[in-house]
Structure formats: structure tokens, C-alpha cells
Amino acid sequence: MKIDVFDTNRQKVGDIDLDDAVFGTDVKDHLLYAAVRYQRAKARAGTHQSKRRSDVRGGGKKPWRQKATGRARQGSIRAPHWRGGGTVFGPISRDHGFKLNKAVRKTALRSAISRRVQEKAVVVLDAFELAAPKTKAVAEFMSRFDLNDMVLVAPRNEVLEKSARNLPTVTFLPPEGLNVYDVLRRRNLVLTRAAIDAVVTRLRAD
Question: Which of 8, 76, 86, 169 is a good FRET partner for 14, with 20 to 30 A between their CA atoms?
């Protein structure tokens, strides 16, 4: 599969053959769902915590004797049905993540990238270099390419990352950080030549 390669001024500078094993696979929606769910679960802090009856201070003494008072028997003023008592089945700190096989995650990412290729929402750049951090330069690039939002994938570049991070519709990722959630969250996928080589090396089927 051939695709045009542009410079940042939208001038064609050549073309590139995209590896069908990464950019031309069948789109498997059930794997996209599983991968997004996996990522969102891993991102949860899991720090929610409520106090159960054993965590609430006080309540060590029996409120009144067991019998002959005419009232219902009670063992502690920190039982869940008392004001100030513990919570029944409340949230506790835990890890929400679950296991998803590496092969499944790689297949899902290939599916997400292939979907953007099918939608003609992939732009390949020869390179994207800036002399100094400048958000306006990235915004002007998006305007020239008629992009409303994008995932920008390029080798680690602190200047480019700083230039892109103030734009709410841009996600900058190095090739090793490319993931299903961000590819699907943005409508367009922009990659440099160097990034494509790294992505192919990472996702090439064994």
C-alpha cells in the first residue's frame, strides 16, 4: 500500500510503502473494545475508600445489656445501621486492572491503525522539526492539512512535545507510546517516516 509523504507545508516530497501486516489488517471491533476497556481500567487510581465497622473509632462497649430493656439487642454503636457507623460493602482501595494478552493488545493496535488508514485519516510526514517550542507552529500545520484533531507520532522530541501539549485537540506520542485509546479518541493519525519504521518494528506479527 503506497501513501504520499508530505513536508509540514503540505508539499509532496515522495511516497512510502506501508506494511500491510500493520496498516492493512482486518479491523476487529471486539478487540478494540477489549483494549480500550483494558487501558481505562489500568488508568483508574483505585484509591476510593470507605470505613467499615472495624475501621470506625469507638463502639467497643455494648450500648446496653442484652435483655430486659424492652429494646432491640445491640452490640456496638458503630454497627452500619447506627448514625456514625461503618459502611456495608463500601468501596475499598484496589487495582482495577486486569490481564489482556500482549498478542491481543498488538492485534488491537494494528486494527485501530488500519481503521484510520481505511478512513483516509492518516498523514505521513517526512519529518517534523521545530527550532524552538511554538504552539502556533503546530496549530498552523493543522490548519494547512485541514485537521481538527490528531495524534502526532514522532520520535521523542521535547521541543515538538512542548509545542503540541497546549492544544486540547492534539496528543503527542512517541512510537513506543502509541495506543488504541488515543488512536480512536482522535480522528486523524499523523506519523513521521521514522515513527512508521519504529511502529512497524514494534507491531510486526511474529
Answer: 169
Are 153 and 199 members of one domain? yes
The ranges of the chain with pLDDT < 70 are 205-206
Task: Kindly state whether residues 10 and 57 are assigned to the same domain.
Answer: no
Q: What is the pTM of this model?
A: 0.84
Report pLDDT digits (tens) over 101-111: 999 999 999 99
- Residue 75, φ and ψ in degrees, nearest 5: -105, -25
Q: Round to whole Å and give the CA distance between 147 and 167.
A: 13
Q: How far is CA 165 from CA 52, 61, 74, 135, 138, in A?
A: 42, 58, 59, 8, 10
Structural domain count of the chain: 2
Domain assignment of residue 88, given as a range? 45-95
Cell of 29: 471491533
Sort strands 12-17 and 2-6 into parallel, antiparallel or unpaired: antiparallel
d(CA 192, CA 180): 18
